[in-house]
Amino acid sequence: MALVGLLFTIAAAVYYIPWIVKLISNWIYQYPYIMKLPGPKGLPLVGNVLELAGDGKTTNSSTAPLLFWLECAEKARAEGHSIFTMTALGRTMTFPLNGEMMKAICESPEQLMKGKDYDYLKAWVGEGILISVGDKWKERRKFFSPMFHFSMLEGYLDTFNKHARIFQQQLLKTEGNEIDMFMYVKRCSLDIIVETAMGCDFGIQTNPDHPYPHAIEVYTNFSQRYNTEPQMWVTAIWYLLYHREYKTALNQLHGLTNDIMNERMKRVQTGEVDLNAKKRPLIDHFFGLHEQGKMTLEEVHLEINATIFGGHDTTAATMSWVYWALATQPHFQQQCYEEAYAIFGDSDRDCTHDDLKALEFTERFIRETMRIFAPVPLIERELVSDFKMGEYVIPKGTEIFLNAFLLHHNPEAFPDPWKFDPDRFLIENVSKRHPYDYVPFCAGHRSCLGQKFAMQEMKILTSWVLRKMSLHSDRNLLDNGYATDVVLKPTLGSLMTVKRRVHPE
Ligand code: HEM
């Protein structure tokens, strides 16, 4: 037994040696810079790991980093700084704290490389639009862009309405019972993205046992744990304890995309599907590029997966905060409802492009929700060279954490930042701010391609719900905690009850 233990320790040490060497050499290079930068000075090499972990009592492990960063941001701002830098286990992280610093990095044509935490995604989405850099990324962005043009977005409205209608029916069935809205809206946003990306209906909302959402859950869970649980890095432990379940989920994800692609390709070959149709799913657009020799089928497959990854959890997390903000603030809910009632009355009709424009207050409500609860709280760029941000010089290898949560709680841009106020998004107020102060979809070169798509979907999902039901909670808006997953999730869940409306109210 002792021998096994010894061998195991030696194997683990050998495994970690390259990592330790890199950690030390990074430290030696970056240390002189870090000492001049504002931010908490942690212990040598381990840095601020303890603060990131929290005390384990008052905060859970996925909330603690955010609370620590908020504290650092407040301190740095009070000292007149517009960034702060911290370190953890050989990683150096710099956080921009206002729009000007955010702009510097987002508009830099050189600093486009994603951070290490994206590596976990590669097995599912490959190295395409979400992760690649340089010419490959530029080409992919060009391939995707036409599908998010205004003319194409109109074509998605039928799909949004179809699934929003089912969503509404599912919620009405729960009347009187407390539900976690996140699960319901997640299934709906998956149905929407699967149909707009692959042209097929998985019917996940009416079949919650569908293997697809389960496989996504297992895969993303494992991948995130991999970043924070070092025992998983030891090959023997990985294969013994985790690999099988992980691989099964991954195979399921790839298998389902493959099946859909094969089926659709057959329909393309028989002429049943027109690749140039005005209303077409993303997959047909990519098949067209494949026919022109610009994408392999494997690349089509991975970009479809990337779209599904980028387009469902983000929308679901945002919408669960939107419903939470409605349920806990009845006066704002009433305003959104009245706006929807003025447009749709008692009807069951679909939401049109003109209706979307008329949902003006609803849009401001959603934007304010995305300010307070930034749905993607963390985006990373790894510096490929030393980089000047305003008066600060940040060393090569530093990860710039583009943390929308910190920017959105900057009191200079958003006075009284925890106050929920949709009027912050009136045109006259928006024009007073730096354009990079508000960045739920990131900004600059790598901004979200799907932001107009998402905004349309979210306005439709909000209005379809309020047209037929009211949302109720005994809690207050800020009673919920927030956990930094890939997306920001409410730690209490998005708990509420729904009640069928009797019109007019
Ligand atoms: C509320 C919903 C959404 C939010 C908050 C959101 C947020 C973001 C953010 C912050 C990024 C930058 C990520 C990074 O640089 O690491 C991003 C990128 C991206 N998003 Fe979204 N997103 C949403 C919905 C969507 C939807 C519905 C789609 C597709 C249908 C989509 C497609 C993409 C793509 C393709 C990129 C990569 C852009 C690039 O690197 O050039 N997103 N999104």
From TrEMBL:
Gene Ontology, cellular component aspect: endoplasmic reticulum membrane
Gene Ontology MF annotations: heme binding; iron ion binding; monooxygenase activity; oxidoreductase activity, acting on paired donors, with incorporation or reduction of molecular oxygen
Residues reported in the UniProt entry to bind heme: C448
Keyword Oxidoreductase on entry: yes
UniProt cross-references to Pfam families, sorted A to Z: p450
Keyword line: Heme, Iron, Metal-binding, Monooxygenase, Oxidoreductase
SUPFAM superfamilies: Cytochrome P450 (SSF48264)
Cofactor: heme
Alphabetized CDD domains for the sequence: CYP4 (cd20628)
Manganese in keyword set: no
PANTHER family in the cross-refs: CYTOCHROME P450 FAMILY (PTHR24291:SF194), CYTOCHROME P450 FAMILY 4 (PTHR24291)
Function text: May be involved in the metabolism of insect hormones and in the breakdown of synthetic insecticides.
Record-stated family: Belongs to the cytochrome P450 family.
Name the UniProt record assigns to this protein: Cytochrome P450
Organism: Pristionchus mayeri
